[in-house]
Amino acid sequence: MYSIEKKEIERFIIKSYRKELWKKFLKAINDFNLIEEGDKILVAISGGKDSILLAKMFEELKKHSIFKFDVCYVSMDPGFTKDNREKLEELCKFLGIDLQIFETDIFEVAEKLAGDYPCYMCARMRRGALYGKAKELGCNKVALGHHMNDVVETTLMNMLYAGTFKTMRPILDSQNFDGLKLIRPMYYIREDDIKRWLKRSDLKALDCACSVTKKRSGNIRYEIKDLVAKLMETNNMAERNILNSAMNINLDSCISWEIDGKKFLLGKEIQE
């Protein structure tokens, strides 16, 4: 079924796409101190291209790292079809990923609670389920496969549709699970480079398997993707500059902001 051997697919990560994938993976880990000695990390696998690459890069890191840490590869079944569940299991078996799967009814519950727009509810429930599993397995970190384009698109979505400047952080503490952190080691990696690796590897990753995606052909995130693509036609630094904007905030030029629950207007704390 697979035309390329597993070892060759792994070599693509650290050789053929070293600059685009492997070096950027290591840079994010080093820049943001995402992994430390003694960590036990749950690597969340959805079966999509991003999480599959994330899992393989963690395997390579385990082989070459100068410090010790543990990893467990976990997939949450939110209500996959039988076909998608089998595809995920087969893919991970071929790639040598020691996958644990636990079942939930999140797709069903999210649609009941949120009606036609369950995506936000679904994402929150999935995150909570992963955190709970991480605690059960004794993990102190959860790694997700969000890449640079996810960060860029989320930043623009918040600006254009929510009127706020919020972005995805490369590392953050869980609000509801003490001692647990979420990390995003693919923070600097472009989605197009992930697609190139997947195509070169001749792998068939799962698309989003939720029923909402099957019912509707577009959403706001697709509009933002198109907008970014249009910007890149005339400014090939557009993606990178949007990413960097969250690292170069000058509060002297801002009108208002919030820190640790405290709100400020023109530098003065607002008393509510």
From TrEMBL:
Keyword Oxidoreductase attached: no
Pfam families per record: ATP_bind_3
A molecular-function term among this protein's GO annotations: transferase activity
GO biological process, one term: tRNA processing
Residues covered by the tRNA(Ile)-lysidine/2-thiocytidine synthase N-terminal domain: 40-204
InterPro entries: Rossmann-like_a/b/a_fold, TilS/TtcA_N, tRNA_thiolation_TtcA_Ctu1
Name of protein: tRNA 2-thiocytidine(32) synthetase TtcA
Protein's organism: Fenollaria massiliensis
